[in-house]
Each structure stands twice: as C-alpha cells, then as structure tokens.
Amino acid sequence: MKTGVKKLKVHVKKNDMVTVISGNDKGKSGKVLRVYPVKGRVIVEGVNIRKRHMRPTQSSPQGQIIEREFPVHASNVKKG
Are 76 and 12 in contact (CB under 8 A)? Predict the structure, then answer.
C-alpha cells in the first residue's frame, strides 16, 4: 500500500444486507458484494446500476452494452 494513503473504517462487511439512505437509489436494499476500504466505498447488489459499453472481442464480435453495479460511498448505506 502507498505511504500516506489512509484506510477508512467501513462499518459494513461483504455479504451484509444494507439499505441506501441517500442518493438516487435511496430506499433500495441489497447485499454487499465488495468493500473498498481505501476509498471508503462499497458495491451493493442491484444499487447504482450503470451501463458499460464493451468493445468488440472475438467472443462477442459486435460488442455489447452491459449493466453492472458501481460503488457507492459507505456513508450512504446502513445495515438492515
């Protein structure tokens, strides 16, 4: 880890059930899929869905648009 980078104490862990308390997805709930303690963010299942444009590859020659969860700040979620 880089020097000078401070880990934030995150009050939730992976597989915890949380509810979003602020932002566009306020009121939604889901399971924590991943925690980023250095950034103080968490990825919650079904929350903060964004579309990603994937470039063409050999397996999908036309490319595709996929929807996936993006991180939300840990202060915007609560357990329960």
Answer: no
